[in-house]
Amino acid sequence: MAYVDDPIVEKARVRVSGPFSTEALSRYALNPSDTALPLADTATDRAAAADHVTQLLDALRSQGIPRPDGKPLKIDRIEQLASAGAIQAEGIYRSGEDEERRFAVSLGPRFGTITPTQVDEALADAYGYELVVFAGFAAHAETQALLEDGRRGRYDVALLLANPDLLLGSLLKNTTASQTFRLYASPDVQLDHAAGGYIVTVKGVDAFDASTGEVKSSSQANVRAWFLDTDYDGLVFRIDQAFFPHTSSWASLAKALKGTLDEGALDDMSGFASIPFEPGEQNRCAVRVMTDDGNTSEVILPLGAGS
Fold first, then answer.
1. Nearest 5°: CA angle at 149, between 64 and 188?
2. How many CA atoms lie within 13 A of 172 on its CB side?
3. Which one in 42, 141, 271, 304 has a CA-CA gap of 20 to 30 Å to 102?
4. Pick from 65, 184, 48: which is nearest to 133 by CA?
5. 23-69 pLDDT, tens per residue?
6. Is the torsion defined by CA of 136, 152, 187, 208 positive or negative?
7. Between residues 35 and 83, which one has the greater pLDDT?
8. Where are the domains of the chain?
9. What is the CATH number of domain 185-302?
């Protein structure tokens, strides 16, 4: 009998594996404030969800609310709400010397994205607040497009993406100097129309420095991986092309497979320009970029006439 730590070795076979990306519909993620969790969820699951809410609110309390072109807004008070709706907390922030304003907080799931549906539900329940803050570990590409102007309908809005390190809990010090939140990041990409279809080129990533409100640009040197969905449907990011620059793994793979791979194709998957592709049924594509710090960001690009 073979055990997991004692595998059967077949030297005549070559096994190939690599980075994987798992996508899921974010509506299946647990609402962090929902007290009526399914019976299959354990006490550990409930504790994890509660910790996730506490961690995000504590970080927000310590660092304030980041904003463009200025230092973070100072929070005087923030309290968690008992309801299980789209708004999990409320508080008071100071926009000037003595001017106090009410704000609401809508938190994304522990594992999942802030979706456009969550935005709509939170804004529908936001009567009486002047600012709605959306905070989470990831945001849907269309969510970023909805909130990037800082205004949605009659409300001021802010989209805060938390550093995944926050999930380390007490292992990560939470101070005003910590770079826990960023307003958003956006891949810097170029879309060209060539004979074989469209080509997307990743040039870097633009991101807000939460402590100063300034835009900082990082180059291709900080891009660890990037992915392309050539026919983005607005719900699930499906990886059609994957690229892993700055790695020697492709050369190692080619060596292991003893020349059975197209070396030219491996070179393409190590670069910053996509393989040419034709528009699909949705007539738009999406680009997801992962940087050195482990953060990801997305941008949606329209295709076809006038793009």
1. 95
2. 18
3. 141
4. 65
5. 444 433 444 445 444 444 445 444 545 577 888 888 888 888 877 76
6. negative
7. 83
8. 26-182, 185-302
9. 2.60.40
